[in-house]
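Quick question: what would this complex look like in 3D?
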Amino acid sequence: MIRTLILCVAGLISMPLAAQDAAVVARDAWVRLPAPSKNDTALFAVIENHSAQKRKIVAVSSAEAQAAEMHEMRMERMMMVMTPVKEVSIPAHGKTSFNPDTLHIMLFGLKTRPSVGDMIEVKLRLDDGTIVPVTAIVRKK
Amino acid sequence: MLRVTMICLAILGSLSCHRALPVMPVGGDFALTDDNAHRFELASLRGKAVLIFFGYTSCPDACPTTLSKLSSVYHQLGSDAKRVKTLYVSVDPQRDTPAVLKADLSAFDLDALGLTGTKPEIDKVVAQYGAQYEIIPTPDSAMKYTVAHSTTLYALDTAGRVRMEFPYEATVDQITKGLEAVLASN
C-alpha cells in the first residue's frame, strides 16, 4: 500500500517535470474563426525546439477535423501562392513560427463549428516519432 | 520593380499633395455578378471611392488578413467611411457563389460587395487591372486546388479611375491616408 502510494506521488511529481523537459513544445497557438460558409480554417503557433538536434514536423492531425495539413505561403511571380508541404523543420535550439503569410496548419472539415474562445487540439508528429500536443484558442483575427 | 516604385511614390506623394495623385494606367468599368446574384456595374458607384482586390473565400490567410485590415481602415475613416465601397472580386467562381461570398463577407465590418461571374468575365477584369491569378491543382491535398493570386489593393476615385495601388504589406494607416487623398483628389 505504502509502495503504491509512493509510486503514485512520484508519478504525479514527474508529470509537470516531463512537460517542462519536452524537447519540442508549441506556444501562442490560435485558430482563425472559420468563415460563415466554411468548415475549414488555419491554425498558427510558435514551435520551439529546446534540443540540440534539428527536428522536423512530418505530420499533423486533429480528432476535431477530418484532415489537417501544413501549408506554406510565399510570393511568387507577383502572386501569393499557397502550397501544401510534407515537412517543416525546426532548428536546434530554435523555433519555427506558423504565422499569417508564412506557414499555417490547415484544418479541413471541422466536426463541430467552433466559437471564439473555444479550444482546438492538434497533434504534431516529429521525425523521431515524438507527438507534440497543441492547444489553440479560436480567435476572430 | 518599376511598378513597386510607382506604388511607393504614389503613397508618398499622396501624403503631401492630394491634387497630384496620378491616374494609374490600369482599370476601367466592368460588369460582374454581385453577392445578391444581381448584375453589378462598376459605373453604378460613381460618386464614391472604391477599393478593389482579387481573392477567393477558401483562402485561409491573405484574403481574410486583407479584409480584417480594411475593416480597421473603415473604422479609422470615421465619417468618410460611408464614401467608400469595397469590391472583393473572386478569382474562384467555381466555389465562390454569390451566397458564399455574401456569407463570408458578413464576418467583416466594412461596406463590401462580393463579385463573381463566368471565367471570361473575371479574366477580363483581372486583365483590365493588371492583376493575376492561377489555379494550381493539389490532388494530394483535401483542398484539391489552390488559387495563386496577386494581392494588390486598388483605390479608385469618385470618377472610377485608379489613383493608388497598395501592396499587400501596406498598413492600415497607409491605406487610410491614401484613401483620404483619393477622396480629396480632383
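Answer marked as accepted. Residues 2-184 of chain B form a domain with the Glutaredoxin fold (CATH 3.40.30.10).
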